[in-house]
Every structure is written in C-alpha cells, then in structure tokens.
C-alpha cells in the first residue's frame, strides 16, 4: 500500500510543478502588455462571451470565423468555468489547463517510447523537461505580439488554435498505443476497434471546429505513415488501418461544415491568397528581426533552431537508413515515424503560411510544440541508457541519485517561483487595475440603454462592464458586424449610442449619418456618441434591425 501511494505521489508531483510553472508564465503575462491580449482583446473573448450569452438566455444565432472553437476549446473552457464566475479567472485557469494537458500527453508518449514501468523516472523527467522547455519559449517571448514574435504564448490562449495541437498529440499517442510503438506486426483487434472509433470521432470534431487540423496534423501524419511504407517498416494493410479514421473523420467534418455553414462567417477559400506570398515572407522576416532584436528573443530563436536542426538531422539519418541495413538498426520505427511527422509538420506550416499569404504568425504555434516530440524521444533514448544500461552498478546508482537530485531541485525551484508570482496573478485576475469600462459605466449608470460599437472595444465592455443593457458589434456602415458574434442578441432592441475608437473599424465619421448627438463623452481609448432623444436614435435602431434581419434570413 505504501509503495502504491509513493507511486501515485511520484506521478502527481509533476502535475503540481506544471501548475506552478503555469503561474510563472501567467505572472509574466499579467505584468506586461500580454495582459491586455489575454483578457481584453476581442479575439480572446469569444468563449467567455458565448458563455455569457447562454447564461442570459439569448437566442443562439452565433456566427464564428472559419473556426468555431467547439472542440476541444469549448470543452476546456467549460471545465475552466466550473469553479468560478469570473471570465478573467476562467481564462487563466484555461491557460494552466492547456499546460497540464500538454504535460499529460507528453507523459503518455514518453511511457510508450520507454516500453517499461521501471523507466518511470525517465518518462516523467523527460515529459516534464519538454513541458518546461515550452514554458521557456513563453518566458522568452520578446513582445506581446500574437501576429509577430509572440507565437509560442498563443497555445495558452482560448481561441488561438491550441485545440489542433493537443488533439494532434493525442492522436499520435493513440497511434503508438494501438501499434505498441510499432514493435509488433499484428495488433490487438480490441485496440484497433477502439482506435478506429476514437480517432474518427476526434478528427470529426476538431476538423469541424478548425480545419487547420488537416494541414497541421493530418497531412504530416499521413506522410509519416507513407514514409514507413517506403522504408519497408509498415505494411499497406496496417497503414490503412491508421489512415482510415483520419480520412473518414475529415470527410464527415467537411460535410457537417457545409450543413452548418451559417455558423461560419468565412469559408476556407478566402484564406488562400497566393498573390500575397511576398507579404507573408515579409511577415516572417519582420518576426525574425523582432525576435533577434533582444537577448531573450535571440535565445529563444537559438533554442528552437537547435531543436529543429536536431530533428532534421535525425530525419536525414532516417532516410539514409532506408538504404543501409546497419543504420536501420540504429533508429526504431517509432522514432522514424515521429521525426517524419515533426519534420513534415514544420515544413508544411511554413509552406501553408506562404501559400495563404498570411499576415499573422499565430498559425505557426505548432512550431514550438510538435518539436517537443523530438525532445521526448531523444531524451528517453539518452536518459534511459545513462540510468539503466550503464554496466557499472556504482556509476549507475550515482547517475540516478544525481539525476533525481537535479530534477527535485529544479521542480522545487519552479514551485517557489510560481508561489512568488501568485500575488501578480491574483491582482490581474481580480481586474484591480482595469479601468477601461469605468467611463462607460458612468455614462450608462442605472439605465438599460443599448448601443453598438467597434469589435475591438465593445467586446470587453460587454463582458466586463456593469451595464444592464447590451453593447453590441457594428461596422463602419452602422450595420451588424457578424464576426464571432451572436445575431440573436440584436433581436427586438432599441439602440441609442455608438462607441467609436482608433481601430478604424467604426470611425468617428460613421456617426455623421445619425445627425447631431445629444452629447459626446470622451473616454480613455474611445468615445461615446449619445443619441438618446434625437432622430439619430431611430435611424440607428432601424439600421441595426434591418441588417440583423438580413443576416438571419440569408
């Protein structure tokens, strides 16, 4: 019994370390410009606003972007809200949950690579080390820019496509589980049945939610399997078993996306802009310049470049092993598969960025996560040989004690630094320094008036203000802006004010068609044009109502 408790404690301790590591990352974010991006940016507030809409009992006619964040983002955010009513706390809990999920999947993959329970320390150490390496990337981000050099941090945010990454890692883990890490040619029928069902369901849900999964996970996954066939390490029959659920799930998902196309504001074709390749190249170049412009950014660039160099070097050796029997014995089939997946995913991410003419780097987040698979399998390979296969018993014991001591000291240090960051996290999560909504609350007072404004301002006001009425999205034409927005919220409402800001989406000039306002209130970062009691109130209400009806009827 005591031994079993010790094993449980040994397994749980890394999760504690990861949680406090998450507090270190959040503490850094909370004391920088990242706080605004994390808690108040319009894109970051999708799921809190969906929850708020449901709690208000509004008719649900949500229109998202090309992603709807249903799975797994919606599930993770729901779990994050179970013990809090605060959107800020939920967003931070979600970030920690993402980190815990990353460690958990890497821990399972490390176990599947080590093949033996006596390697528990190796598995935990390597999985935890890989997770900490990701945290290092976050802490080394030079600027709070999700569209340039701040790419790694976006994995911690609710609506920046982390679901694709975590689901991809789960599918990799399931693949190693059903194949027993490719060490046996015949697989258990029970495992195969479970794999077929689970991977099909996962693929369907995640592709329906975010089609990026096809390019970022399924494509390199299929190429990895084809590479094993080419290397004569996997039969076509077994490869087909692994391919079928991924392909079938994708097909089902695209059918569902067509059936529910009203939930999406844009189709996939709108993202493909090959004529913007030069712009996309410039974005990458500017991001590298921004990253290398500081010591911490340069260190981050050196580390990830080193991991990628290691990955492509092993990939080159794997290809060479196809033609050399001796070399083939030096790299296992599972290592061949993982390094192919990581290499192809890295290349496809950059290629996809260029082909689509992307003006943002946030779609490249997997570049900081998938290479951790290389870290895991190389780490398991090296540490297992150091701690288990060293012939000298005394040297082996000394190495084990030293490794355990270093791991214990590092984990305690992470917990201590995490505790130090708790006050900053608590202050940020409480909104103690948030003042953006104060001016708006003073204007609205106890009334239940409704208004419209720019996407970038009204979403945080809608979520964090104490106003009784609604403040909803509109564009420069003073019509409904149907982007990650609930069209049902506009139903049967009168609108009497307009909020403008410097974003350019709803400029000051746009309110001219409403005539002279009753008053204009200048707030920090935005202005409120009040049309209560003026002809502009009726004009505004009619414009919003007509555009909402048109969108609902299309």
UniProtKB/TrEMBL annotation:
Task: Please verify whether the record's keywords include Transmembrane.
Answer: yes
- Write down the superkingdom of origin: Bacteria
> Keywords in UniProt for this one?
Membrane, Transmembrane, Transmembrane helix
Keyword NADP: yes or no? no
Protein name from the UniProt record: Uncharacterized protein
The portions of this protein that span the membrane are 12-30, 89-109, 121-140, 160-180, 192-208, 214-231, 238-256, 301-321, 333-355, 367-387, 399-420
């Amino acid at each position: 019994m005591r031994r079993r408790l010790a094993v449980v404690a040994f397994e749980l301790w890394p999760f504690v370390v990861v949680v406090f590591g998450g507090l270190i990352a959040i503490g850094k974010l909370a004391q920088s410009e990242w706080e605004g991006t994390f808690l108040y940016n319009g894109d970051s507030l999708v799921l809190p606003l969906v929850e708020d809409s449901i709690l208000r009992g509004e008719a649900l006619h949500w229109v998202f972007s090309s992603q709807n964040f249903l799975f797994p983002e919606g599930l993770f955010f729901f779990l994050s809200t179970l013990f809090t009513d605060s959107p800020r706390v939920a967003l931070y809990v979600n970030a920690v949950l993402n980190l815990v999920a990353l460690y958990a999947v890497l821990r399972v993959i490390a176990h599947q690579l080590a093949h033996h329970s006596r390697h528990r320390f190796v598995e935990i150490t390597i999985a935890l080390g890989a997770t900490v390496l990701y945290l290092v990337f976050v802490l080394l981000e030079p600027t709070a820019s999700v569209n340039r050099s701040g790419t790694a941090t976006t994995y911690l945010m609710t609506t920046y496509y982390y679901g694709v990454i975590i689901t991809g890692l789960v599918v990799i883990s399931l693949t190693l589980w059903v194949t027993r890490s490719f060490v046996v040619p015949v697989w258990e029928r029970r495992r195969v049945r479970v794999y077929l069902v689970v991977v099909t369901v996962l693929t369907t849900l995640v592709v329906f939610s975010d089609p990026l999964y096809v390019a970022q996970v399924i494509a390199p996954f299929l190429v990895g399997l084809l590479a094993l066939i080419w290397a004569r390490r996997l039969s076509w029959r077994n490869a087909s078993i692994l391919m079928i659920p991924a392909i079938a799930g994708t097909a089902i998902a695209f059918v569902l996306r067509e059936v529910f196309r009203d939930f999406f504001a844009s189709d996939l074709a709108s993202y493909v802009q090959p004529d913007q390749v030069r712009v996309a190249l410039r974005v990458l170049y500017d991001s590298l310049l921004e990253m290398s412009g500081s010591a911490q950014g340069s260190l981050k660039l050196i580390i990830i470049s080193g991991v990628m160099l290691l990955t492509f070097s092993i990939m080159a050796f794997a290809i060479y092993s196809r033609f050399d029997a001796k070399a083939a014995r030096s790299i296992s089939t599972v290592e061949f598969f993982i390094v192919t997946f990581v290499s192809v995913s890295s290349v496809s991410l950059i290629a996809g960025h260029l082909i689509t003419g992307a003006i943002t780097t946030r779609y490249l987040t997997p570049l900081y996560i998938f290479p951790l698979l290389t870290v895991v399998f190389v780490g398991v390979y090296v540490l297992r040989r150091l701690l288990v296969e060293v012939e000298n018993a005394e040297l082996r014991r000394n190495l084990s004690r030293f490794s355990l001591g270093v791991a214990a000291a590092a984990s305690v240090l992470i917990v201590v630094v995490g505790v130090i960051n708790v006050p900053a996290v608590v202050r940020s999560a409480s909104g103690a320094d948030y003042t953006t909504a104060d001016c708006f609350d003073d204007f609205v007072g106890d009334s239940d008036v409704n208004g419209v404004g720019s996407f970038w301002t009204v979403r945080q006001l809608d979520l964090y203000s104490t106003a009784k009425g609604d403040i909803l999205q509109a564009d420069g034409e003073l019509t409904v802006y149907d982007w990650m927005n609930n069209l049902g919220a506009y139903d049967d409402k009168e609108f009497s004010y307009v909020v403008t800001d410097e974003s350019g989406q709803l400029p000051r000039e746009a309110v001219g068609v409403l005539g002279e306002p009753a008053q204009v209130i200048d707030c920090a970062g935005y202005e409120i044009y009040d049309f209560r009691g003026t002809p502009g109130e009726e004009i505004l209400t009619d414009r919003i109502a007509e555009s909402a009806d048109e969108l609902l009827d299309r």
